[in-house]
Amino acid sequence: GAVEVINARETAPRVFPHNLLSGCGVPFPIVLLCSSGARWIGVPGELRGYEEAHKRHGRLPWKALFEPTIKLLSEPLVISPVLGKILHHPSFSEPGKRLCPLLCDGGRFLEPGKSFQWPALQRTLRAVAEHGAAAFYEGDIGRALVEDISKAGSSLSLEDLRAYKAEVSSALNITLNNHTKVFAPGPPLGGAVLMFILKVLEEYKFNKASLATPEEKVETYHYIAEALKFGNMLRPHMSDPAFSEAQVPVGTLLSDQFAESARQRIDARGDHQLSHYSLLESLHKEQHRSLGTSHISVLAADGSAVSATSTINYP
Fold first, then answer.
1. Is 288's pLDDT higher than 50?
2. Can you tell me the distance from the alpha carbon of 218 to that of 311, in angstroms, rounded to the nearest whole number?
3. Residue 309 in contact with residue 184, Cβ under 8 Å?
4. N or C: which end of the chain has fewer CB within 10 A?
């Protein structure tokens, strides 16, 4: 069957400060290191993306998709150990104080095991379930969002929300070992980098014996780790083709020659300098990082498959 990509990444508001990068002190791809504050809030697209997916492939009524979560929100939610660690982490605790109306008791974050309720989220999901994504992008929810974040300095507007559209495109694809087809989204999403990593590893011909002994297992994991390092250095170069020329054309990234150039640099060492893993002329002195990304993959009984990646950077 066909494989398609629905790109519902955030976009920049139509009006935004053009000097946002001036205070970063590092090259553009490392912008996440300094991109905090309301001025960096983009136009959220995820809900429009799910709406597009439902229009194209949905079988259940739209409303039915929200009912389990709405029901869950009728009961108290419990602070998990992981959430507790995040809330009390030094880098989060101060900016996270904005969440105190929801997650605090007497000005202090709730401890793991304590419960809280989230009626506002339940009301929001009910509105979206009843009226579709328009309840968010064109209704009272969007207006309340714009009013709230504008007080903190955001330039996001109702016009930005109303104008947002998810984009549908064909997936990239490669063939590994002459028989395995791999599909992934193209830039600005990271699928091409994943394909590059797989092409680097392809020639090692991993099989069951590659994990048979401790020595072979260490060697196999070493090759995988080294390939991931090369891929990580390419991630910041996945610019959005709608707004800028690709720093690394996809054809180059997925070529046999490019994968071979990485393999030639992989040796028994794992302690190389960061520059060793850059296959490009421009080197980065800082480490690219992303916070708050989650991913889910679902296989259905009829053979269809869906994967979704979502990121909410914080604070």
1. no
2. 32
3. no
4. N
- Pairing verdict, β 108-109 and 104-105: antiparallel
pLDDT-derived band at 29 (thresholds 50, 70, 90) equals very low
Residues 108-113, mean pLDDT to the nearest whole number: 94
**pLDDT tops 60 at residue 281:** no
**How much is the CA Rg of the chain, to the nearest whole Å?**
22
Tokens of 313: 């950077």
Residue 5, pLDDT score: 94
* Domains of the chain, residue spans: 4-76+117-168, 171-277
What gap in Å lies between CA 290 and CA 295, rounded to an integer? 13
Sign of CA dihedral 230, 231, 235, 238: positive
Q: Which CATH class is domain 171-277?
A: mainly alpha
Peptide bond before 27: cis, by omega within 30 degrees of 0? no
Write b or e for each residue in 148-177: b if 16 or more Cβ atoms lie within 10 A of its Cβ, otherwise e: eeeeeebbbbeebbeebebeeeeebebeee
Active site residues: 293
Tally Cβ neighbours within 10 Å of residue 28.
9
Q: Is 312 annotated as a binding residue?
A: yes
38 CB contacts (<8 Å, ≥6 apart)? Answer: 149, 152, 153, 154
Tell me the C-alpha distance between 164 and 12, whole Å.
10
Q: To the nearest 10°, the Cα dihedral for 228, 229, 230, 235?
A: 80
Q: Is there a contact between 194 and 174 (Cβ–Cβ < 8 Å)?
A: no
Cα angle 254, 245, 249 (rounded to 5 degrees) comes to 10
Rounded to the nearest 5 percent, the helix, strand and coil shares of the chain are 45, 15, 40
Which is more confident, 99 or 130?
130
Q: Which of 92-96, 226-230, 286-290 has the highest mean pLDDT?
A: 226-230
Q: What is the pLDDT of residues 174-233, one digit of tens each?
A: 999 989 999 999 888 889 999 999 999 999 999 999 999 999 999 999 999 999 999 999
